[in-house]
Amino acid sequence: MKIDPVKRALALRKTLKKDDRVMVVDFSETLQGKDTSRVIDLMPNVATGEYVFRAKVNIKEIDPMAAGVYGKDFKDVTKMSDAEIEGFVKRAEFDFPLWFKHNKGFSMGRVLDYNPPFIMQVAGCNFHDGSNTGGCRYCFVDNESNDGVVGSGKTYISAREAVDSFVVARGKVAAAYAEKGADLQMKVLRVSGGEPTIVLDWVLDLWREVESRGLDCVGQIDSNLSTGTLVDEFERQGIFEKHTLEKLAEFPVKVLTALKGVDASNLQDNVQSTATLKQQLYSIKMFLTAGFDIFPQMYNPNPASLEGYLRKMDRQIENFALRVHIGPLKAYGPTKARLQAEAKALGIDEAAHLADVQAQWDANYKNGCDVMNDYLQKTYGVGYRDVVRSDVGLKLR
Fold first, then answer.
1. Contact 303/263 with Cβ under 8 angstroms?
2. Distance between CA 135 and CA 126 in Å, rounded?
3. Domain boundaries, given as residue ranges, for the chain
């Protein structure tokens, strides 16, 4: 039976928040930690020594350390014009650094500062039922990191400890890059998950702590777009203070809004829950109404229904399709483990199942990009990834 994401979120709240602390993932023994620490080592909570922070180098080609590790052709931004940097970054797999283009202090020549975010992960996802095959089928987070169960692989952290750790970590990262002759000052503080909107009160405390110290940084939070009504309910009950989202939107925080499907079946098959397009749209509108700058990331869309979805969304939100990027899916360590467990439960060959699923994801990505490009050409007269997303304004119709 597919899980109800709102009921699951209500249950997760009981373990994810304890007094002024939030439960996060300790990456020390996770497959995800091993996958994502090839360039920048895992980083600790300076108060406890637990490795609860990671960094993800988004665009490998412009990073002087990651390019070599991942076998990419290095693009030295210090020798590129602003237009050349922008042109390359906007077409990259992850255009995240350009999200902050219009923030105070941003300069194209300093784009590296926005490339590797300092990430902590809320240790529970409301699409996940606690099993070894639960949650989004393509999720690259270990199952144990998403089940919301107190115990091994999780720990609690306060907002003050998180900011203390960020300050120390970015000093160490800067020193490591300086040894390679590169100048990088890590700017982005990201709360991922799991589902951060279940603990928005803690996220707001985090940014109040950042502001109290006058730190020069920007932020990102992620959402699976299933919890809009939950936020409303938490405000009604007094769990969240009134206008929590509006208060958080006053800080320089962008939102990755994850579009998990473009029709009912596509959505529910991807996330293995009873999530609905209606709830997804409501949650998007909730962020926009609060004043957030959102960046829709689409995963494994059904190419057959994609154009219709984009057309409907453009009728609701001006320029919506121009903001959408489709993310390619790769079978990282946790993804492989989930699909192998799925194959075992089905009694089929694990290697063949993994290959079949990856081939389907690849086809949906390629065909989805083609549909996106055709739709944008017809509707806006531009191709897919021809514009910088942060240059495109969104407005509720």
1. no
2. 8
3. 5-392
| Rounded distance between C-alpha atoms, residue 275 and residue 262, angstroms | 12
177 Cβ partners below 8 Å, 6+ apart?
A: 64, 65, 183, 184
* Amino acid in the structure at residue 233: E
Query: Could you tell me which residues come within 8 angstroms of residue 1 by beta carbon, excluding any fewer than 6 positions away?
Result: none
Q: Which residues contact 106 (CB under 8 A, 6 or more apart)?
A: 100, 114
- Residue 34, both tokens: 């091993």
Tokens matching residue 105 = 């202090």
In CATH, 5-392 is 3.30.1330.10 = no
Residue 1 pLDDT greater than 80, yes or no: no
Q: Residue 293: beta bridge partners? A: 254
Strand partners, 340: none
CA-based max dimension of the chain? 56
pLDDT in tens, 136-193: 999 999 999 999 999 999 999 999 999 999 999 999 999 999 998 999 999 999 999 9
pLDDT tens per residue, range 209-248: 999 999 999 999 999 999 999 999 999 999 999 999 999 9
CA distance 311 to 313: 5
Tokens of 102: 């219009």
